[in-house]
Amino acid sequence: MEHDPQPEAYLLHAWICDVHPMLWRRFLVRSDSTLADLHIILQIGFAWTDFHLHRFRIRKKDYAVPRLHGLSCHDARQIKLAELQFRLNERFLYEYDFGDGWQLQLRLEQRSAIKAERPYPVCVGGRWAGPPEDCGGPKAFLARRAAAPWRVEELLEGLREDLKAGDLTTVHDCLEELQPWQEWLSLHRFDRRAVNRRLRQYAQGDRGWMNS
Q1: Number of structural domains found in the chain
Q2: Nearest CA to 192 among 116, 121, 126?
């Protein structure tokens, strides 16, 4: 009777195509994780909500978690990473939200022994906050992120003028418009602790990761 090989830890580097400077994450994941697990790890890592369809493309085959009216793909829940026998530095593709067209390249950078004291999966590095859902894709995301500082300054200047004039209606409208732009100012930060808190919840079967 054959036994499954001893699980390993895979160091995976994931980055979003067509976004510069590079927006990336590094994850340590168990080799006995499924592609469906990796899908959730990526969703958490880039702060997405799993609202849209997704697909892995690996050696000309497509994999996804089945959904009603979804794509015709191999079932990602049935495929463990170890079964794919990735070579070191081999790349594969993850696509999310076919309207916005996010494409992520993933590369296996290292294999290592599982450490009992380390939780898996875990994010060990990254840069920049993930793009907000439904923001239009890489080009629109970069344009809006670049515009945020001057647009916030413009709105703040208008707010100061409205406050001087005592125009409370305009002040209210300006504050409503200002709020989403202020959120875009924070996209240079990457909160790895928050990501790892959600990854721990997911690994423990705590559905709170969906609302964190």
Answers
A1: 2
A2: 126
Residues 69 and 54 in one domain: yes
Higher pLDDT, 48 or 158: 48
Beta strands in 101-190 (DSSP E): 102-113, 122-127
Per-residue model confidence as pLDDT tens digits over 178-210: 777 778 888 888 999 999 999 999 999 998 888
What pLDDT, on a 0 to 100 scale, did the predictor assign at position 120?
97
Closest to 38 measured CA to CA, from 96, 99, 90 = 96
Q: Are 55 and 91 in the same domain?
A: yes
Cα separation, 140 vs 97, in Å, equals: 14
Identify the pLDDT of residue 4: 61
Q: What is the pTM of this model?
A: 0.88
Q: Could you tell me the residue range of the domain that residue 168 belongs to?
A: 138-186
In a domain, 83, yes or no: yes
Are 63 and 159 found together in one domain?
no
157 plus 105 within the same structural domain: no
Q: Is the pLDDT of residue 50 over 80?
A: yes
Q: Is 33 exposed, middle or buried (0-12, 13-18, 19+ CB in 10 A)?
A: buried
